[in-house]
UniProtKB/TrEMBL annotation:
PROSITE patterns: RESPONSE_REGULATORY, SIGMA54_INTERACT_1, SIGMA54_INTERACT_2, SIGMA54_INTERACT_3, SIGMA54_INTERACT_4. SMART domains: AAA, REC. Signal peptide: none annotated. InterPro entries: AAA+_ATPase, AAA_lid_NorR, CheY-like_superfamily, Homeodomain-like_sf, HTH_Fis, P-loop_NTPase, Sig_transdc_resp-reg_receiver, Sigma_54_int. One of its GO terms (biological process) is phosphorelay signal transduction system. Residues 120-349 form the Sigma-54 factor interaction domain. Residues 2-114 form the Response regulatory domain. This is Sigma-54-dependent Fis family transcriptional regulator.
């Protein structure tokens, strides 16, 4: 992960930088916001900006928006001024980090943005078969399409392919097509020339050129606008790109990996995805099974996450108890590996005693995993009936709109505020989700802020 720190390197901010580097982040530093925009414009990209909240965060985000540069911002500050923190969130910062920093908060923010340090871990035969196929094609130059449900580890697989490719010593650049608005995505991918549009005060290098010689991951490509699909097709076919406002093609040497949690063949039939682009991307398809299809991976992944988050939070590594392992095996994991990771992170923080027991493994709303606290004399059928009855009673008397709102907000909570993941689970576009959240915020409903677990009534800025 690439982190750009903006502000004077005081003792506390320097401590945060060292902590981020200890978690694997590659850190660069500038003192002024205009220097940050200039560095991003030149193609010295970043996955995250950490900005002193005494600086003009609103102006920085506006300058980046004018240049069609999309990089999330987190604010930080030493004196923990609540008004400044709230102002930073309203200005567009996704999170506030108080200084001196806490190790678990730094780790959580970094892990929410990047998957750089996530190794390929598998023990189940169904997943090992996919890894074997990945090993066969990793050193080729073929474009690869990775498919599977949200949270199964598609980006982890993409990084695995890059590390085992002939391009492993060159850049790996990832672009989330669902998270970037259409009017910004073209410049994000292809860059632009000075004067290409209002606000383009200098040439900007896009992700294609940043990835030159390496690998470009187009995450959630199904969300890409049809017009950009045509431009992407030309770039893949001809190995040249056109910057926005440019007059001559720019050659690029990259390998394309794309991911999708949707059926692209169905999207082609519906006319929302180009068939010729699908053929270009889908030279090899790696379908990652859901976690419930690979039960042999649950225990080994859980052990890995326990060690990872114990180290990140500076606490002893406790083993999982036998009851905890049974509870993990019994859960359906609708959020797949991402849900398991979040659950084990919470368990590391909540566990007491020499082992992590079943009571420490909880859902985002604090409830235990299904079956953990069931009555001893109640069988599976009885528990299922009780659950169905509780669900049906909860919805009786509600309008369709109320049920929809409950479903959307509960799913957002389940995803710890991550809009992209929630939209994927709900089966709607990120734009539709944002519109719904803006509508609820206008009604005065508290909306969970992105990338943290704190509900805040931030209105449209939080969506």
């Amino acid at each position: 992960m690439r982190l750009l720190v903006v502000g004077r390197l005081s003792g506390q901010l320097a401590a945060a930088v060292k902590m981020a580097m200890a978690h694997g982040a590659k850190v660069q530093h500038v003192e002024r916001t205009d220097q940050a925009t200039e560095q991003l414009r030149r193609g010295q990209g970043a996955d995250l900006l950490m900005v002193d909240y005494n600086l003009d965060i609103s102006g920085l985000i506006a300058a980046n928006d004018a240049e069609r540069i999309f990089v999330p911002v987190v604010a930080c500050g030493v004196d923990n001024d609540a008004d400044k923190a709230a102002a930073a969130i309203r200005a567009g910062a996704k999170e506030f980090i108080p200084l001196p920093p806490e190790a678990d908060l730094i780790a959580a923010v970094l892990s929410a943005v990047a998957d750089d340090e996530r190794p390929m871990i598998s023990a189940d035969p169904s997943m090992q078969a996919v890894v074997k196929l990945a090993d066969q094609v990793a050193r080729s130059e073929a474009s690869i399409l990775i498919t599977g449900e949200s949270g199964v580890g598609k980006e982890v697989m993409a990084r695995y392919l890059h590390v085992n490719s002939k391009r492993s010593d060159r850049p790996f650049i990832s672009v989330n097509c669902a998270a970037i608005p259409d009017n910004l995505l073209e410049s994000e991918l292809f860059g632009h020339e000075k004067g290409a549009f209002t606000g383009a005060v200098a040439r900007r290098i896009g992700k294609f050129e940043e990835a030159d010689g390496g690998t470009l991951l187009l995450d959630e490509i199904s969300e890409m606008d049809a017009r950009l699909q045509a431009k992407l097709l030309r770039a893949i076919q001809e190995r040249v790109i056109d910057r926005v406002g440019g007059t001559k093609p720019v050659p690029v040497n990259i390998r394309i990996i794309a991911t999708s949690n949707r059926d692209l063949s169905k999207a082609v039939a519906e006319g929302v995805f180009r068939e010729d682009l699908l053929y270009r991307l889908n030279v090899v398809n790696l379908r990652l099974p859901s976690l419930r299809e690979r039960p042999g991976d649950v225990a080994v992944l859980a052990d890995h996450f326990v060690k990872k988050y114990a180290a990140a939070n500076g606490v002893p590594t406790r083993p999982l108890s036998a009851d905890a392992r049974r509870a993990l095996a019994a859960h359906r994991w609708p959020g797949n590996v991402r849900e398991l990771e979040n659950a084990m992170h919470r368990a590391v923080l909540l566990a007491v005693g020499p082992e992590i027991d079943a009571e420490a493994i909880r859902l985002p709303d604090g409830q235990p995993l299904s079956g953990v606290v069931a009555q001893a004399d109640s069988g599976p059928a009885a528990r299922a009936a009780q659950t169905a009855d509780a669900v049906s009673r909860a919805y009786v008397g509600q309008t369709v709109a109320q049920m929809e709102k409950t479903l959307i907000l509960d799913t957002l909570t389940h995803c710890l505020g991550n809009r992209t993941h929630a939209a994927n689970i709900l089966g709607i576009s990120i734009r539709t989700l944002r519109n719904k959240l803006n509508e609820y915020a206008d009604e005065g409903t508290a909306i969970m802020a992105p990338q943290n677990g704190v509900a805040a009534n931030y209105g449209a800025s939080a969506a």
